[in-house]
Amino acid sequence: MSDLIAAESSDYYSRQRSWPALFQIKHGGIFLDIGCGKGRLGSFLKNRFAAKVTGIEIFQEHAREASRCLDEVLCGNIEELDLSAYANQFDYVIFSDSLEHLLDPESALMKAKAMLRADGALLLAIPNVRNFRVTLPLVFLGRFEYQDEGLLDRTHLRFFTRSSITNLLQHCGFEVESVKFDLPSNSKVGLLNILTLGLFKETLTSHLFIKACRKNS
C-alpha cells in the first residue's frame, strides 16, 4: 500500500487530453473549454470529433499558444469575463482540472449553464479529495501538505468529493447524468478496485469525470 500512496497519478496525465471520450460525444459539436491551457484537450476534440472549440485561458502565453490550434481563445478569468454574448451557444462546456482553481465555482457554473444549449452537457474532470493518498496521511499522520502538482496542488482553492460536487451542481441547476472514475484496469489502483469488487472506488480514484445536464424547468 505504501507504494500506492507514494505514487502520483501519472497515468491520469497521459489520459488528460482524452477523458471526454469516456462519455458519448456527438460528432461536430461546439465546445467551450474553460481553463484550456495550451489547447491540447481542444486539439484532441477537434481531431477526434470534428469539434469547434472555443477556449478560455487566464495566462496570456498559454492563450497565445492555444489560439494556434483552437477556433477562438478568450484570455481572462471566467469569473470576471462578460460572456453574455455566448448565451446558449455551446453543446458542451468543459472544466478539465480548472473548477478547483476558482474563488467562486458556483458563479462559474452559473455562467456555464447560461452558455449551454438546452440539450447541452457540462463535462468536468475533478480531483477527488477523498482519495486515499489524501485521507490516509491526514488520518494517520495528521498531514495535509500542499504540493507543486497533483491532488493537493498548492493552487487549488476548492476541494471536492463526489457528494460535494454533486450537491454544488444540483444547487446550480444541473442534474448529474454520469460519473466515471480514473481506475484503468491496467493500473495498480485499477487492479485493487477489481479485487475489492468496486467497493472502494470513491477512495481509490484520483479524479472524478462527470457529465451533467441542465435541469428541466
Task: Please explain how this structure is put together.
By secondary structure, the protein is of the alpha/beta class. It contains nine helices and seven strands. It has helices spanning about 1-5, 10-15, 40-50, 60-65, 105-115, 130-140, 160-170, 190-195, 200-205; strands spanning about 30-35, 50-55, 70-75, 90-95, 115-125, 175-180, 205-215. It is globular, with a radius of gyration of 17 Å. It starts with a helix and ends with a strand.
Distinctive features:
Rossmann fold, alpha/beta, 7-stranded mixed beta sheet, single chain, 217 residues
Structural class determined from secondary elements = alpha/beta
CATH homologous superfamily identity: Vaccinia Virus protein VP39
Largest sheet features:
7 strands, mixed
- Output the CATH topology: Rossmann fold
Radius of gyration from the CA trace?
A: 17 Å
* Low-pLDDT segments: 1-10
Total count of helical runs of at least 4 residues: 9
Reported CATH architecture: 3-Layer(aba) Sandwich
Number of strands: 7
- Calculate the terminal CA-CA distance, rounded to whole Å: 47 Å
Topology:
Blueprint: H1 2-6, H2 10-15, E1 30-34, H3 40-49, E2 52-57, H4 60-66, E3 72-75, E4 90-96, H5 105-115, E5 116-127, H6 132-141, H7 162-171, E6 174-181, H8 188-195, H9 201-204, E7 207-214
